[in-house]
Write a structure and sequence with these properties.
single chain; 4 strands
Length: 143
C-alpha cells in the first residue's frame, strides 16, 4: 500500500510515546468552488491513521507531522480554538483561510503553553503532596 504523497512507504515511529499531531491538505467544495483546506488531527499510530484516510480519500496529502511530547488531544484542541472562526464548523477539524506556516506556528505556541501549565500543575501537586506528608508526619510524631 503506498503512502499519501510518496511512492515509497514512510514509517512514522512514535518515539515520544505520546503520539503525533498532523496536518493534511484536503480539498473541499465551498460555494461551488474547490478549495484547499487543512485538517488538523492527532494519532498514536500515524501509519495506521494515514492508511485509514487513504482508503476513503485518496487525494489527501500529509503536509506536516510531528511526534509530540505533550498531550496530543489538548494540543489539537488548543490549535482548533485559535482557529475557531476559520473552521468549516465547530464539529470538525478542517481549517480554511489559514496558511500551513500559521498552523505550524500555532502548534508550537500551544505546545509551549501546555508544557508551561503542565509544569505548574506538577509543581503544585508536589507542594500539596509535600504539605500532606509533613502534616501526617507532625500528627504521627505527636502520638
Amino acid at each position: 500500500m503506498k503512502k499519501l504523497t510518496s511512492k515509497k512507504y514512510t514509517e512514522y515511529k512514535n518515539t515520544s510515546g505520546k503520539g503525533f499531531i498532523y496536518v493534511l491538505k484536503v480539498k473541499k467544495l465551498l460555494d461551488g468552488k474547490e478549495k484547499h483546506c487543512l485538517k488538523l488531527g492527532y494519532a498514536t499510530n500515524l501509519n495506521k491513521r494515514l492508511d485509514t484516510y487513504k482508503t476513503g480519500h485518496p487525494d489527501i496529502e500529509l503536509v506536516y507531522q510531528e511526534n509530540v511530547n505533550v498531550n496530543k488531544k489538548q494540543l489539537e484542541k488548543c490549535v482548533l480554538n485559535l482557529n475557531i472562526m476559520k473552521r468549516l464548523s465547530t464539529k470538525n477539524e478542517i481549517i480554511c483561510d489559514s496558511s500551513l506556516k500559521d498552523i505550524i506556528n500555532e502548534i508550537q505556541d500551544c505546545k509551549k503553553l501546555l508544557i508551561k501549565y503542565s509544569n505548574k500543575n506538577t509543581l503544585t501537586k508536589k507542594k500539596i503532596n509535600n504539605k500532606t506528608t509533613l502534616t501526617k508526619n507532625k500528627i504521627n510524631n505527636k502520638k
